[in-house]
Amino acid sequence: MLDAPPRKFATQLILIGFLVLTWSSDSGAKKNRPQKSNKVGVIIALGYGHSKEALPSSQMVQRVLGAIDLYRQKRSKYIMLCGGYTSGNIAEAEEMKIMALAHGVPARAILLEDGSMTTGQNKANAEYFIDRHRFRSAALVSHEAHLKRAVQQFEEIKRLRSVLLFPVDDVEIPAVNLVYDEELPSPKEFDAVVIHGKSKPIDFLSDSIQVDSYQRSLARTAADLYQKGFEDIPFFFWHPATSVGHITRAQLIGIAAIGFGLPASQVIYDEARRYSPAKRELFDDCKAHGWTRILAVLPRVRKDDVEWVKEKYEEAGLEVTVILTGRSK
């Protein structure tokens, strides 16, 4: 087993005139006017179904970034992330939380609604949080076509006096734009990028969904490498430690990377290791995929391990170039 001995975020959210609810009276929707403060009790980001566990869609990323943008504008102190277990063992809301944490949203600001499978269930479960926190207004974040359906259901929540709509159809994922200690090699020299996971100690008394600085730097570097030309080879996320909870640490880093712009189609995870050691060594994984030329990425905290990692790859008969995670300009 191979084990050890953040372009600046500027999401351009199109607010389309702050889209206050002005649907026709035939729809039964409330007609609300924008508050002078432009603030709401809670920002609600609706989930987007994923076809495979730990591989969120670009549409889900848009909704998360839209909610984050509103949060950074101080529109609310809270973001509610909605979506249940539509595929596999990880809820949509949990994937959204990982991405939000990776982008710097504090855990205390996030409300997790992970029990819904439909928009109607989103509304019913969100109402619990709205009543509990006594929210009187909400900003609904989703794609325009979805908002037209969702607003009718959220307006049924009696406690809410206003529901503002924020479509994210035009939200783009910004470039990460990192710098490296040395010039990056050509992507043509490699069969795969291997992200060597590392995590800080887990607080077992807190929520198991945590994103630390090591994981964030690895996720940002993976997305940045893709944006710098490593777009035709897979990114393999590997972590030497077993998971804490139902989300593996490799999956956590990969989900965060997707939130920074790495397409889910490029992501491959090491064999899921929930509560148990890996069944296959890293090098066996590489060989099983037919990868013999590897670009290995280590967190900067492991700079003293670079030569040791090279030796291990070479002993396994694999060609490797090792780099450290990039740094912000």
What's the overall geometry?
Answer: elongated
Number of helices: 8
Radius of gyration: 21 Å
CATH topology of the largest domain: Rossmann fold
CATH structural architecture of the largest domain: 3-Layer(aba) Sandwich
Uncertain residue segments: 4-36
CATH class of the largest domain: Alpha Beta
Task: Describe the main β-sheet briefly.
Answer: 5 strands, parallel
Distance between the termini: 35 Å
Mean pLDDT: 87
**What series of H and E elements makes up the topology?**
EHEHEHEHEEEHEHEHEHEE
Which strands sit side by side, in order, in the main sheet? Answer: 3-2-1-4-5
Q: Helices and strands: which structural class?
A: alpha/beta
Residues in helices, as a percent range: 25-40%
- Counted beta strands: 12
